Amino acid sequence: MAGQPQAVTALGDALLRETDPRVREAILTALARIGTDESAAAILPLIRSDDAGLRTGAIDALRLMPRALAARLQRLLVDPDPDVRLLASDLARELPALEATRLLCNLLADEPEANVSAAAVDVLAECGTLEALPVLAATSQRFAEVPFLAFACKIAADRIRANTSASDG
Fold first, then answer.
1. First and final CA of the chain: distance in angstroms?
2. Which of 38, 20, 31 is nearest to 63 (CA)?
3. Which contacts of 77-84 are long-range, i.e. CB under 8 A and separated by 24 or more positions?
C-alpha cells in the first residue's frame, strides 16, 4: 500500500488497532512513503501514546516527511502537553535552519518548562541562526536558577556564532 495515497485512511485505521510491532513499523513506513498531509495526520496522534515503541515509530516516520511535518509543527510547539512540545522541538531538526530557528525562538519566548526549553536549545545549537542569539540570552536569564539550561544556552550561542563565522569565511 506504500505509495498509494488512497490507502492512507485504511493504513491509519489499521495502525490504531495493530499490536504487532513489526506490522506497525510497516504501516508507519508506508504512511511515511506516501508522505501527504493526510499521512502526517494519521501519524501525529501517536506521539501522545504511552507505548514508547509506537511513539518512537511515529516520530521516526514524521522525520521522513518534512514537508507534511512543517505544516503541523507550529501547532505541536504550542501544545498544552510539555512532552509533545519536547518531541516537536526535536522534530524541528528536520526543517531548514531559518524555519527551525523561527519556530524554536517562538517556543522559547514563553516556554515555562526547563526540559522543553533545553530540547529547543539543543536543536538551536545544531542548526540555529544568528536570530536565535537574543532569545538564547533571554532564556538563559529566565532560567538562571537552572544551571544546566543557562550553560546550554551559552554553548548554543557559541556554536551558532562559530558556525556563522565559519560559513562567512
1. 48
2. 31
3. 77/103, 77/104, 77/106, 77/107, 78/107, 81/48, 82/113, 82/115, 82/116, 83/48, 84/47, 84/48
68-83 per-residue burial string, b: 16 or more CB within 10 A, e: under 16 = bbbebbeebbeeeeee
Q: Which of 80, 78, 83 is nearest to 59 (CA)?
A: 83
pLDDT tens readout for residues 30-54: 999 998 899 999 999 999 999 898 9
The residue behind cell 485512511 is 9
pTM of the model: 0.88
Neighbours of 17 (CB within 10 A): 7
Q: How far apart are CA 25 and CA 92, in angstroms?
A: 22
Q: If you average pLDDT over every residue of the chain, what do you get?
A: 92
